[in-house]
Amino acid sequence: MISFLVRKFVKEPENVDSPKTRESYGTLSSFVGIACNVTLFVVKYAMGIMSNSIAVISDAFNNLSDSASCIITLFGYKMAAKPADKDHPFGHGRIEYLTSLLISAIIVIMGFELFRDSAAKIFHPEEVKFSWIVLASLVLSIALKFWMSHFNNILGHKINSTVMIATAKDSKNDVIATSATVVAVIASLFTKLPVDGIMGVIVSAFILKAGYGIIKDTVDDLIGKPADEELVAKIQEIIMSDERIIGIHDLLIHSYGPGSLIGSCHVEVRCNDDFVMLHDAVDVAEHRINHELGVLMTIHMDPVDVDDQKVNECRSMVRSIIKNISENLSIHDFRLVSGETHTNLIFDLVVPYDIKFTDQQLKEIIDDKLSFQPVNYYTVITFDKQYTSSDK
Hints:
- The protein is an alpha/beta fold.
- The chain has three domains: 2-223, Up-down Bundle (Alpha-lytic protease prodomain-like), CATH 1.20.1510.10; 226-305, Alpha-Beta Plaits (2-Layer Sandwich); 308-386, 2-Layer Sandwich (Alpha-Beta Plaits), CATH 3.30.70.
- It contains eleven helices and six strands.
- The protein has helices at 2-9, 19-51, 54-80, 95-123, 132-159, 162-187, 195-223, 229-240, 275-293, 309-325, 359-370; strands spanning 245-255, 261-270, 295-304, 330-338, 343-351, 377-385.
- It has a three-stranded mixed sheet with strand order 1-2-3, with helices on one face.
- Strand 1 and strand 2 form a beta hairpin.
- The longest helix is centred in the N-terminal third of the chain and has 33 residues, at 19-51.
């Protein structure tokens, strides 16, 4: 069924980086969601009135909020598909994130409203009228929502869409919420306790939890989070495949929305290699990364001396010192400047965010270890942060 819908309504379904293709996927997801959720709202609201159940009515309005979310999503994909212009040279892809944030806000507001009404039913319960038609409609709703979760999850991972994946999670939570509603309807046969109100509270709690999760994921995208580990590994693999490149650091990836990634990094090369050949190697790596991974990459070359025995000895000595502090520390751009009274060790120290020492404390520890050496060493350290999961 899913494959049929994709073939029918999406042109060039494999070209997932194309804004037009993403728009087609988004349109398909939105119209399917609107059709299903409006149908569920009408059926559940009628069943809720028939059975006098706040849990069923809450579940119905949850589906109505999902319909509104689908309409907003449709608008978001239309806006995100707009091409780059002079005011937005990186395109409009981040509108997807804003759309996801708006959807989550609607979900949270609806959750609070349903929580309030359900809590009132606990303290002022009303009789729930059991009906096999109501029960059957809820079971069919569970099946349909389970399919919708599967549908949006497949499409979301296909085009790497946070909006669709968020919608899939919301549908999965709807399955749990409607299951709680089923419990309330069945319980009305056996007890006068306010199970209906309690289950309404549980349903609204699931709605609030789903909204919070989507907000958190979306805010992380907007603020900026580490690049995907698999993407980083592929970039490093492409760059390091050329033997003339001996190291990589300061790798940064900036996302301007799905399919719009810009990256930069520094690579270490031998200082006595042919500059023209090295420049060609870097150009090849940049083009491969852009073509194979869709990342617009800029690579800066750092020449290093790997043949000087004294430099290599000092580099190994410093690496040994920092590894005793933490295995997660690393250095790059190591240089040595010798003078009559002392020798300067100049290098960059990459400090992950989970290191508990301050920059000054790290320098003092390193300097203290170096003070036991027969040579008078001074350190000139530039402290870097680690923006990806690993550096080579």
